[in-house]
Known about the structure:
The protein is about 35% helix and about 25% strand. By secondary structure, the protein is α/β, with parallel strands linked by helices. Strand 9 (about 210-220) and strand 10 (about 225-230) form a beta hairpin. The longest helix is centred in the C-terminal third of the chain and has 18 residues, at about 305-325. The mean pLDDT is about 95.
Amino acid sequence: MTGQNVRWGILATGGMAATFTADLVDLPDAEVVAVASRSLEPAKAFAERFGIPRAYGDWESLARDEEVDIVYVATPHSAHRAAAGLCLEAGRNVLCEKPFTLNAREATELVGLARDRGLFLMEAMWMYCHPMVRRLKALIDDGAIGEVRTVQADFGLAANVPASHRLRDPALGGGALLDLGVYPVSFTQLLLGEPSDVVAKATLSEERVDLQTGALLSWESGAVASVHCSIVGGTATSASVTGSEGRIDIPYGFFFPDRFVLHREGRDAEEFTADPADGARNTLKHEAAEAMRALRAGGTESPLVPLDGTLAVMRTLDAIRDRIGVRYPGEAG
Length: 333
């Protein structure tokens, strides 16, 4: 695909799809050529809004569109397995929103499909592609704070939603953990890999989804991490990484930071700030650019968001849900 535009299809027409598409159309080498929804009218309205030439009233038509190079899946995560699987089976490359699936079993099935067919697949974990997060990880990898000993990260908001809302609907994978907790868990595993042990507690709703969850993750190295998520209270949404020789603090919005501060013994604190050329701190263009870069290079996954890392995060989320007693319809146990 070297030297040509990457042609995108958008599967779903909700808020995430709109946000992603708005950022995507600003990239000079991206072309949005089709959109699909479960019915034609919302697809047509979305297509008109963004100047997309083809609108489909079913997912299958988009999956079969041979003029689409890659499909961005933005359905609720309870439908990720079905939507992404349909596209992969039809020969389309896929960028799938986070959380990647409901559970590790579904994630393993999607990764198996992509690998069997030699197709590109990537979780839309935009945090991993964010320039400031990449800069932070590079500093840590270079030993700026020594060996990582502790990570703390939280993401909470006061959603104030009724029981009928998707955030509280078990059939839609509701709860704080999959919607919000995926960020602190993914951040932690970006730095430390998959934990060897998981302890967790949660406050559950009447529908048996988690309203807030706290987890303690540990590694055989001796490192520990404290992660928290909530849909019943706005938290600092910050993170801190402590090593044997220093600490990095990330203020509000740790998964799309515009600055962070490096503290080292005997030195003045160093503040790192975003390059204005990178654009808005909350842009999704970096994950789109990374997917297109990998596609042009002939890759089947991104080194920034590797599939094995995605699977590891899903296993941790499963372990946390096991500890707090949250299961979704159709899951065993």
